[in-house]
Amino acid sequence: MDGRVTDQDLAEHFKGIGSITEALVKTRYGSVSSGYGFVVFEKAEDAEKAIEQLNGSTLRFRKIKVEHVKEPSEVKEAPAEEGAGEEGVKENRNRRRKAPAKEKEPAHEEASKTAVFVANLPFGLTDEGLVGLFEGFDVQQGHVVRTRHGISRGYGFVEFNSEKDQQEAIEKLNKTIVEDPAPPKPGKEKRPPRQITVSVSRSAPRQPEETQNVN
Description:
InterPro entries: Euk_RNA-bind_prot, Nucleotide-bd_a/b_plait_sf, RBD_domain_sf, RRM_dom. Keywords: RNA-binding. The chain is α+β, with helices and mostly antiparallel strands. It is 23% helix and 28% strand. The strands form 4 sheets. A 4-stranded antiparallel β-sheet has the order 6-7-5-10. A two-stranded antiparallel sheet has the order 1-2.
């Protein structure tokens, strides 16, 4: 499950199934998402319906797996990372980068039927501005990918409510010129427009760190 998904996002995604008593994203160190969560329904039949209808659905541009909660003996706990909070996570990641790379099979890339990848975006473009580029299409959501400091990485994703809109948006907007909406900084010239590319979004599903209910 995408690390930016909140409790509210989870509840919103499942609310059409039935009455929910709790929706919770599991976190580590107080705020770092573990990549999975739990949804509790008032009725057992609604839980079955959620598995049937939402397993494999897309939440924040990533397909999720929906299943019954595992028994404790079936859950594989991820190894604890040294340190606490975000600094501990970064320290552990740095150690992993230095370790020799292990051979593994190439990740399977699956083409989305509703989302597009938009590259070479102007750095002043906001999420709302990105969605605005696709005015006239049935857009479900869209966001510009940013660093943890809030700086645009120059690309983003837009998800539509149908494959038809996805394909038509690619045909219409790929290689179009987009102006940078941000005003120039004092003493600086306005950033030049950029030619964006719009293509089918591809995601390589990652193995969950732990066996989980929703990932």
